Amino acid sequence: MNMKEKIIAIAKENQADAVGFAPISRFDENDPVFKIMPETKTVICLVFRTLRGMYRGIEEGTTYYQYSTMAVENLEETVMPGAALRVANYIETEGYTALPQRRHQIIMAEKDSTNPEVLHDLIYRDRPEENQMNFIDSAVKCGVGEKSLHGVLLTDEFGPMVRYCFVLTDAEIEPDEVIKPHLCDGCGDCVKACPGHAISKDGYVDVWQCATYYKGASGIRNPFMNPDAFPDLDDRLAIIAGEADLSPERAKEILAKIAFYPPVGQSYCASMCGRLCDIDCYVHLEKKGVLKRSFATEFRKREKWSFDISDYDVIKK
Ligand code: SF4
Ligand code: SF4
User: What whole-number distance in Å separates Cα of residue 30 and Cα of residue 128?
Assistant: First the structure.
């Protein structure tokens, strides 16, 4: 078994579903990789499926914590770092340097950005010195999938139902080909699916709009919202319908009023939007028959549920 085969074997023994290798020549000179570890010769991407079952509760509108705990927190904080560490240990045993790279969920390089998956008031912002890799572009360079219209990794086996991390090393390892994009057909289902209209037609995601609706501002898709939600806001119906265009300040104001579901460990919030952008993308790709991993039954079992905005029109001013 050569070094590449051994790395793939260790990653897969530790729950990775796919592994891709990119030579450093694919990264331009300003890429954060050069600041993080200038001697990097190979970037290795480890891809992990998020089980379809973990999405059942948020798809049905019944329970929301399994997705946040098992598909986000557990993978990001336990499974993925464990696998990356074991791969890195092997590489260092072979006499090369290896640096695992996982997303730091509460550090943002931009002044006023956020991460919808974690509590916004715990985030450290304007920290460009804390270089983090460009995750999606690096994954594409490693040949593990393509970038979707809405900016997530799409893989042949699992579509958007994946998460991923990296190991940087100064070992030169045979690269994999970059995949020619073939899954995203621009159908726009991800854009239409978002209950907070956080994704524009060209795929740009407004992170504050996303954060607000991820955490449950849409009454159309939130079974825990009371009919008289946001009683002090004049545009409460526009917010509940997902039709308000929220600045970061406005988003923070609304987020301060939202507590529909307790956060889980490590500050991760429950995905009250049901991660519909990814789920509807998955449903679309599954129906088209382009995903290599098939299941006994289709993911979506019935028409998508939603509440009516008139259910919330109970406050007369
Ligand atoms: S839903 Fe359609 S447009 Fe959006 S990422 Fe998936 S395939 Fe592309
Ligand atoms: S569906 Fe959820 S995760 Fe996707 S963009 Fe909208 S709020 Fe964000």
Answer: 13
In a domain, 273, yes or no: yes
pLDDT for 154 beyond 90: yes
24 shares a domain with 159: yes
Ligand 1 centre to CA of 291 (Å) is: 13
**One-letter amino acid identity for 281?**
C
Q: Clarify whether residues 54 and 147 are in a common domain.
A: yes
DSSP letter, residue 160? T
Q: What pLDDT score was predicted for residue 317? A: 63
Q: Are residues 46 and 89 in the same domain?
A: yes
Question: Is the CB of residue 21 less than 8 Å from the CB of residue 44?
Answer: yes
The distance from CA 77 to its chain's CA centroid, rounded to whole angstroms, is 14
Residues 158 and 233 in one domain: no
Do both 208 and 146 map to the same domain? no
Mutate-to-test residue for ligand 1 from 183, 201, 281, highest number of ligand atoms within 8 A of CB: 281
- Whole domain around residue 194: which residue ranges? 189-291
Q: What is the pLDDT of residues 4-56, one digit of tens each?
A: 999 999 999 999 999 999 999 999 999 999 999 999 999 999 999 999 999 99
Q: Count of domains in the chain?
A: 2
Nearest-atom number in ligand 2 for the CA of 276 is 1
242 and 160, same domain (yes or no): no
**CB-ligand 1 contact for 149 (6 Å cutoff):** yes
Q: Compute CA distances 15 → 12, 19, 74, 80, 138, whole Å.
A: 5, 11, 12, 8, 20
**Per-residue burial over 19-54, b = 16 or more CB atoms within 10 Å of its CB, e = otherwise:** bbbbbbebbeeebbbeeebeebbbbbbbbbbbebeb
User: Are residue 143 and residue 194 in the same domain, yes or no?
Assistant: no
